[in-house]
Here is the input.
Amino acid sequence: MLEAVLNWLKRSESVVATIAYAVVAILLMVDVVGRELFSTSFLGMQQVAVYGAIVAGFLGLTLATSDNAHLRPEFLDFIAGPFDRHAVRLGDLLSAAFFFAATHVAVTFVQISYEAGDKAPVLYFALWPLQLVIPYAFFSAGLKHLIFALKPSLKHFTSEARG
Here is the structure.
């Protein structure tokens, strides 16, 4: 069951991140072609590309968590070693707690943005729907770390991570 949740999250987040990056690439290419060949620029195209990159970047956090490919501090590895079962579990529990706390802060941020009626510059659309990727990414990363703490066998250890 937990493995199915992880697989579904990774698959769906990969699809959305890929679409976001494709949109960014297409928008920037159209903008460059428009400026260089036709001496015209499309209003807001670069801004939308930035928002797409933000979405893809936050989803990159969740995908790195899925693959155990994110950066981690190694300065305490001498105590228990980087692959000690209890140390890895404790690290995942602490990471889950951190990401769940970050989720709370991010939800508050989005709520304040919604209540203030924050709008995107140039295009003037409400920002809060786009900002929802922030608490989602933190929650997803926290959930994955919690699952890894509950069932460490689901955590992927790449050969690069093992040294």
